[in-house]
Design a protein that fits this description.
Structural class: mainly alpha
Strand content: under 5%
Radius of gyration: 16 Å
Largest sheet: none
Protein name: DUF4044 domain-containing protein
Keywords: Membrane, Transmembrane, Transmembrane helix
Shape: rod-shaped
Length: 38
């Protein structure tokens, strides 16, 4: 794999992946809190 500057598409992909991970974590935490009855 050659190192080259990230293209705009790669940046957008990285941001999308991070948003998905954060959304998954957030929903897991919300589900846990809701199941505890808060």
């Amino acid at each position: 794999m050659q190192r080259k500057k990230k293209t705009r598409f790669q940046k957008i992909t990285m941001v999308a992946v991070w948003l998905m991970l954060i959304a998954m974590l957030g929903s897991l935490i919300l589900g846990a809190v809701a199941s505890l009855g808060f």
